[in-house]
Amino acid sequence: MGDQTEATTRDRWGSKIAFIMAAVGFAVGFGNVWRFPSLAYEYGGGAFFIPYIMALLFIGIPLVTLEVSLGQYHQTGDVGVFGSIHRRLKGVGLGSVIAAWVLVTYYAPLIAWVINAFFDSFRNAAIWEDSTGSEAYAYFLEEIIGEKTLGADFLPTRMVWANVGYIAVTWFVVWLCLAWGIEATGKVTYFTMGLPAILIFVFLGRAVSLPGASVGINAYIGEWDMSVLVNQPECWSRAVSQIFFSVGVTFVSHYLHSSCYVIALPAAQICTHIIIFLFFSSTGWCSHRFWELLSKRWTSLSELHHHIGMQQSLLVHRWICCLRWARIFGL
Amino acid sequence: MAYEEGVELDQVAVSGPSLLFGAYPVVLATLPGGIHWVRLLFFTLFLLGIDSAFALTDAVVTVTADSVPGANLSRKQIVSGWCVLGFLTGLLYATDAGFRFLDVFDFYINFLVVSLQRI
Q1: ipTM
Q2: Long-range CB pairs of B87-93, under 8 A, 24+ apart, other chains included
Q3: A-contacting residues in B 59-98 (Cβ below 8 Å)
Q4: Residue B80: pLDDT above 90?
């Protein structure tokens, strides 16, 4: 695996910048962007940064550094890296590759729904212009994903053919990005990471200038409810799994042909938090809209939390339905 | 009524996918130019998603290429094979219960596989 001739014939990134862009592009996805806000909201606002940053410093960065070293030393993918340490460790590498595969099989449909929403907006623009966040989201679930025909038992009843087509499109794009080798992939990344990086700052400028943005930002970093760290100890393990997810530990050793990951990792973290920051600003604006209506009924945020808690018990019910499905598939 | 709706909106607004596919597009639609900003957001999300997707696929492709059965295949053949398989698996999520399946797999991958792997 680690022999010299093979190492020299292996594809290389075109440049350091291409590698950094690819690593950041990989690390900034949907998942870490939408997971962090709900975690911070659930676990004491800004206080969640304490377990989060500790997990980053003491677990995330050391593990990624280790993976950088292993990837650079062995110049191969996950199975080869672990197999080179000891052949019986190959299974560890294989496990991470299987996890990456399962992840990408549902990640592609997610992208497909985004493409669907994009094209759908040319047919029905009004839904985004004249509705609240929850109405728009309901539309997304029912029309774009096609849940309107879904019964109370959550059993699939039909194929959503538009999404079949868009999933095919997504995989075709993935194929185009990968089939020509890693150097071409690097060039693609200039576009797939560069353009969002610019657009995000445009979106950010808009979001923070909205009325009520400060409410959302406050919920993100303004309120530090330290008691959560003791009273809800699971926040520590949630922080660790969030770090695993956001730094891409276990999925990236094949990418680590360069020490540039040291630059890419903080860059990805910063990108992620800029995006989260702007989402919180806009969330604040949304809540600002009905906060005015509610101010007479609710006096404190804790009361709001109580109502949200009741709402979440409905989510738990939904989970049980999902898990029943999972059991059918023998997972 | 407003009371009920209010709770839901705030809950929906902070948690998970609804942020991306509910609250945020609606905010952008208030900009001058409205719907075009929403389209630009979906395009940005597409780009953010696609580079994560091909990085993950690349992990699988690299391992296949380094394996014994993969040694005789060209990169293009391996990439094609995985992409077709990915599409076929994706059909599960193209049903109207697709989002429920996604929830289930997301839960298992993130809380069980990723966590257990590194204990």
Answers
A1: 0.85
A2: B87/A108, B87/A167, B87/A168, B87/A171, B89/A105, B90/A105, B90/A106, B90/A108, B90/A109, B90/A112, B90/A167, B90/A170, B90/A171, B91/A159, B91/A164, B91/A167, B93/A106, B93/A109, B93/A112, B93/A163, B93/A167
A3: 59-63, 65-67, 75-76, 79-80, 83-84, 86-87, 89-91, 93-98
A4: yes
Rounded Cα distance, A64 and A50, in Å: 20
Q: Do A133 and B26 touch (CB under 8 A)?
A: yes
> Looking up tokens 């303004």, which residue turns up?
A222
With DSSP H G I counted as helix, E B as strand and the rest as coil, what are the percentages for chain B, rounded to 5? 85, 0, 15
Structure tokens given for A22: 């690819």
Here the tokens at position A78 are: 């996950």
Q: What gap in Å lies between CA A308 and CA A313, rounded to an integer?
A: 9
Locus of tokens 């100890």: A233
What is the band of A3 on the pLDDT scale with cuts at 50, 70, 90? Answer: very low
The reported pTM is 0.74
Nearest C-alpha of chain A: how many angstroms from B32? 11
CA distance B33 to chain A (A): 11
Q: Are A167 and B87 in contact (CB under 8 A)?
A: yes
- How far out from the chain centre does Cα A212 lie? 25
Task: Locate B78 and state its tokens.
Answer: 């391996």
CA distance A298 to chain B (A): 10
* Per-residue pLDDT tens over the stretch A189-225: 788 877 877 877 777 777 677 666 676 676 666 777 7
Take residue B75 and report the two structure tokens written for it.
């990169």
Query: What is the CB neighbour count within 10 angstroms for residue A330?
Result: 5
Mean pLDDT of B47-58: 84
Q: Is A87 exposed, middle or buried (0-12, 13-18, 19+ CB in 10 A)?
A: exposed
Instruction: Judge: A34–B48 Cβ closer than 8 Å, yes or no.
Output: no
